[in-house]
Specification:
With 567 residues, this protein is an alpha/beta fold. It has eleven helices and 33 strands. A hairpin with a 2-residue loop joins β26 and β27. α2 runs antiparallel to α11, α3 runs antiparallel to α4 and α6 crosses α8. The two termini are 40 Å apart. 35% of the residues are buried.
């Protein structure tokens, strides 16, 4: 039991007043022998016993009356199973408004149900609680009840994906740090299976995790476009989502013009189609792949972009080596490059200080390193080859095809300015400085495993067609579906294609076993009615002051009756 006004319990000291008055009124009368009245002694003794009993009963009633009044003023709270108030509680409400919350189930968006449950949790808080709201953007919002309710009302599906396991871990640590009797985390999500696939939340003892269970029934069938990339004159469209059992028709558009259609197999079976693109003039082009509308509209379209450019005019320079020569031959056969001297790939050209672009590797003979560095300086390049570096794997965000490839021999690439495109052990390995690209190793299997890797020819293609020209290429990022171009001066040098995380397309809900594995075995997965009944159940209390006042009135009436009828 606890009290809303514990200081009022000091009034219990007043319960001693009836006893004190009773003691003060007691007196022993003087005894005198009066023979004629001796026969009344027995009657007097019987009357005294009745008076003592009356006084004792009145004393107890008056003391109990004062105790009941003081306890009622202290507002005692007693544990109850349902209804009533609750003790001060630290609460985090996780409202998952990731893209999948926009799916329509039984004619209503999933987010409407989640919002209603979140409002119920916030509306049942009191001024003594500490409350936070966590949305898909990862920001923990604190504030008063009205402010948080307004935030919930304004929530719409976001493009960001919420990691539920990580969010529950953060929320549990946040409420555990609060010195309050109750600690709860309310998870209001569609509980996608893919959102709980990895990791486990560390939930401290005493923190209750309540998760709203998905609506029973078969999960909504949904298909979404996972990716759309252009290669070899065609767009490759991959389809993901919940298995609907039927092929997905894909439409490809450039602007408002439809340029092709194809049927992708059901998701989960490597669903991807290739649609040939019409020949376009030189420049940057954007299009989109579109699916027919279904339960989740947000993933039914994804843009793509590609550049139409004449193949680079490339030649192998002195000391290029057999691997570079073979790669350029393959690229010429594929019409990705043509013969010319706009780009020279190999060792630093001796005695040449101008003309064309260079993709250069360190000389095989260490004695020629100084000569090569002087040629770079004469060219105006601020980078040079230094001492030998330690072996290690390649790391590159700009050229993902070479990531993880082992380098066994290299020189440190030293200098300032330019762009570092790849590193080994945190040190530059691939650098672009103006119209010169420097490699820290020779493109030979004695120096690196790269020439024997499947990504070697695409790597050389990227070097001569994109990297040495300073073009950024086409990148991808999570976001609202759109295309943003990178511009340098008056030239477009790259583009970024934004789209939703393809895992959002799979609407299959997590099983109770998966929820327990992610949130801990004590987590509760409840339907709407049980969720409403269980929130704050660990600290739910009812105010017993009304009952105590009723008892006080009953005691007062009894005291009045005893005092009047036994007079």
């Amino acid at each position: 039991m606890s009290f809303l006004h514990p200081l009022a319990l000091l009034g219990l000291a007043a319960a001693a007043i009836p006893a004190l008055l009773h003691l003060l009124q007691r007196r022993t009368p003087p005894e005198l022998e009066f023979p004629p009245l001796r026969y009344l002694s027995e009657a007097e003794r019987q009357s005294a016993r009745r008076l003592k009993l009356r006084h004792l009963l009145l004393l107890l009633l008056r003391t109990a009356l004062i105790v009941m009044i003081v306890l009622a003023a202290a507002r005692p709270l007693v544990p109850v199973q349902s209804g009533g108030a609750h003790e001060p509680t630290a609460l985090v409400v996780i409202l998952d408004n990731s893209p999948s919350s926009g799916a329509v189930v039984d004619g209503h968006p999933v987010l409407d149900r989640l919002r209603a449950a979140a409002r119920g949790s916030i509306a049942h808080t009191s001024g003594a609680d500490r409350v936070w709201l966590l949305l898909a953007d990862g920001v923990v919002r604190g504030g008063g009840q009205e402010a948080l309710l307004a935030s919930i009302d304004s929530v719409t599906p976001d493009w960001r994906r919420l990691d539920l396991t990580q969010s529950v871990d953060r929320a549990a640590r946040l409420v555990h740090a609060e010195p309050l009797p109750g600690r709860e985390v309310h998870v209001l999500s569609d509980l996608q299976r893919t959102a709980l696939a990895t990791g486990r939340a560390e939930v401290p003892r005493g923190v209750r995790i309540l998760a709203l269970a998905p609506v029973r029934g078969r999960p909504a069938a949904n298909r979404g476009i996972a990716s759309a990339t252009v290669a070899e004159g065609a767009v490759i469209v991959a389809v993901a989502g919940s298995d609907s059992g039927e092929p997905a028709p894909v439409t490809v558009r450039i602007g408002t013009r439809e340029v092709g259609r194809a049927l992708a197999s059901a998701p989960g079976e490597g669903a991807a189609v290739s649609v040939t693109l019409p020949v376009q003039r030189t420049g940057w082009w954007a299009g989109e792949a579109v699916l027919e509308p279904d339960e989740l509209r947000a993933d039914d379209r994804r843009p793509f972009v590609w550049q139409v450019a004449p193949p680079a005019r490339v030649s192998a320079g002195p000391g290029a080596g057999p691997f570079i020569g073979t790669a350029l031959s393959v690229l010429r056969d594929a019409r990705r490059v043509q013969e010319g001297r706009d780009v020279i790939v190999g060792d630093v050209p001796a005695g040449s200080t101008g003309g064309g672009r260079w993709v250069v590797q360190p000389p095989a003979d260490p004695a020629l390193l100084g000569q090569a560095n002087r040629a770079l300086t004469a060219r105006g390049v601020s980078w040079r080859w230094g001492l030998a570096g330690t072996p290690g794997p390649l790391v590159s965000r700009a050229l993902e095809q070479i990531g993880g490839t082992q380098v066994t021999r290299r020189y440190r690439v030293e200098g300032t300015g330019g762009d570092v495109l790849a590193t080994v052990n945190g040190e530059p390995w691939l650098v672009r400085a103006g119209d010169v690209v420097l490699l820290g190793s020779r493109l030979d299997t004695a120096w690196t495993a790269l020439p024997a890797a499947p990504g070697f020819v695409p790597f050389v293609d990227a070097l001569v067609n994109r990297v040495v020209t300073g073009a950024a290429g086409v990148g991808t990022a999570a976001g609202t579906p759109r295309v943003e171009f990178q511009v340098r001066g008056s030239d477009t040098v790259g583009a970024t294609v934004f789209g939703l995380d393809p895992r959002e397309s799979d609407l299959t809900p997590a099983t109770p076993a998966l929820v327990a594995a992610a949130f801990g075995p004590t987590a509760l997965m409840l339907n709407d009615a049980r969720f409403a009944a269980e929130r704050f159940a660990g600290t739910r209390r009812a105010d017993a002051s009304a009952l105590l006042l009723a008892l006080a009135l009953l005691l007062a009436a009894t005291e009045l009756g005893v005092a009047t009828l036994t007079r």
